[in-house]
Amino acid sequence: MNYAFYSILFLLVAAGSTLAQTGKVQDEQGQGVPSAVISVHAFQGMDTTYLTYTKSNAHGQFTIVLPAGSLKNVLIRVHAMSYAPTQLPAGQWVAPHTITLKSRPVQLGEVVITRPRPPVQIRGDTAGI
């Protein structure tokens, strides 16, 4: 009986010591940005400590779980392919969190394949139906 009580009490305390932040990453037209990386860093002076990260879903929505009380001296960084990265102090977040990224097209370099294609090998080990 005591074991079950203390186990449940521990789980409730552990669940209460985390803070889930939800929001959306969008572009300038208000469309969700899929696969954007949202990372959270604690800073003190010139030192920065990585806390956690998450990725946005196909609609740009995300949920990130932080330890309770960790929003003090915290910096949120958001980046995605073809968008300029952005960062903001956690104190600037207003629930629900909406982060707008500015478009920044990326021109990839040209790829040249110089190795010749290997000859096709036919083996008699396939079965026909």
Description of the structure:
- It is a single chain.
- With 129 residues, this protein is mainly β.
- The protein has 1 helix and 7 strands, in the order αβββββββ.
- The chain has one domain (2-100): Immunoglobulin-like, CATH 2.60.40.1120.
- It has one helix at residues 2-16, and strands spanning 18-26, 37-44, 47-55, 61-67, 74-79, 86-89, 97-100.
- The strands form 2 sheets. Strands 3-2-5-6 form a 4-stranded antiparallel β-sheet, with no helix packed on it.
Secondary-structure blueprint:
Blueprint: H1 2-16, E1 18-26, E2 37-44, E3 47-55, E4 61-67, E5 74-79, E6 86-89, E7 97-100
Parallel strand pairs: 1-7
Antiparallel strand pairs: 1-4, 2-3, 2-5, 5-6
What is the name of the CATH architecture? Sandwich
Radius of gyration: 23 Å
**Beta-strand percent range:** 35-45%
Enumerate the strands of the largest sheet in spatial order, edge to edge or round the barrel: 3-2-5-6
CATH topology: Immunoglobulin-like
CATH first level: which class?
Mainly Beta
CATH-level-4 superfamily name: Carboxypeptidase-like, regulatory domain
Helix/strand class: mainly beta
- The termini sit apart by 64 Å
Q: Tell me the domain tally.
A: 1
Q: Sheet with the most strands? A: 4 strands, antiparallel
H/E element sequence: HEEEEEEE
Share in helix: 10-25%
**Average pLDDT taken over every residue:** 80
Number of strands: 7
pLDDT < 50 stretches: none
